[in-house]
Design goal:
The chain is built from 7 helices and 11 strands. The chain is α+β, with helices and mostly antiparallel strands.
Length: 289
């Protein structure tokens, strides 16, 4: 009996000493990544830090600040593809010993017969869900300002000439009963032009593409180049809007026509602003056209 207890306890002890996402079975690895999005966020940040450290001569770039990670890289954090859904599999038997009694073998077989796949959790690319808003207008409105263009935006968004920002905005003219369309606004400012024509949002391991159409260039007196985009979020981008507002981590890649792309890991504050702006927009009667 003592031998049986020791043999059955041994694999449990060995499993606890190994990280669950180090399992060699790819189906188990992908499922664990869905359960622990914070690990994928940490990996993405580590990748950006390593790429920035390899720069021979880092430039004094307002788009690359020390307290808010920015980097110049060729690829965004590796995304998990839709067709990589976890398939129902069983763990492969492992060699735990060469001599077992029939009772010990039966107990071991019962453990190996358990289906350890993670398909029941149903982790998928985020889709729009028309969930009720739990906050009120009175709770949300103190976190917003009405800027000089007549847009409601988070009060934490900076409109300094050299600022770099990514945020939602919407207008509501005086006397109107409903707000205008929700918009995605991006501002890039640095000492070199970028000419970005595509945005790739890596959200919790999935890529969402956005193609800005309202793209403007300007030059500041000190030689800095500024590029902005301000685009209406139509119904075709509802999944992206929902994902940004419900994300665990987000990396944004500005794809340049010049072959030099910029990547930013969005902050917790920026992700919270996406959620708050979407909630306020919906409470005021906004919808997607």
């Amino acid at each position: 009996m003592l031998l049986l207890v020791i043999l059955l306890a041994a694999p449990v002890g060995m499993a606890s000493a190994t990280r669950d996402d180090d399992d060699k079975d790819p189906s188990i690895q992908r499922g664990i990544r869905r359960l622990h999005p914070e690990r994928e966020r940490a990996k993405a940040m580590k990748k950006l830090q390593e790429q920035m450290a390899r720069k021979a001569e880092p430039k004094d770039d307002p788009w690359d600040t020390s307290d808010d990670l920015w980097g110049t890289v060729d690829l965004p954090p590796v995304a998990l593809k839709d067709n990589a859904a976890v398939e129902g599999r069983r763990l492969k038997p492992r060699q735990l010993g060469t001599s077992k009694t029939p009772e010990e073998q039966a107990a071991l077989d019962s453990l190996l017969a358990i289906d350890y796949s993670l398909t029941e959790f149903g982790y998928r690319r985020m889709k729009w869900r028309d969930l009720p808003v739990t906050r009120t207008i009175d709770q949300l409105i103190p976190g917003f300002v009405l800027n000089e263009d007549g847009d409601y935006v988070s009060k934490y968004v900076s409109f300094a000439p050299t600022s770099n920002e990514v945020y939602f905005a919407f207008a509501m003219a005086e006397g109107d009963s409903l707000p205008g369309p929700l918009r995605l606004c991006v501002r890039y400012c640095a000492d070199d032009p970028l000419d970005f024509d595509q945005l790739i949002f890596s959200i919790d391991g999935y890529d969402y593409l956005f193609y800005p159409s309202d793209h403007h260039h300007s030059t500041l007196p000190d030689g800095l180049y500024c590029e902005t985009s301000d685009d209406v979020l139509t119904a075709s981008y509802k999944d992206l809007v929902y994902a940004l507002a419900h994300s665990n981590w987000v990396a944004l890649k500005l794809v340049s026509t010049r072959g030099i792309h910029h990547v930013k890991m969005l902050t917790d504050g920026q992700r919270s602003d996406f959620a708050a702006t979407l909630d306020l927009y919906r409470l005021l009667g906004g919808n997607f056209r």
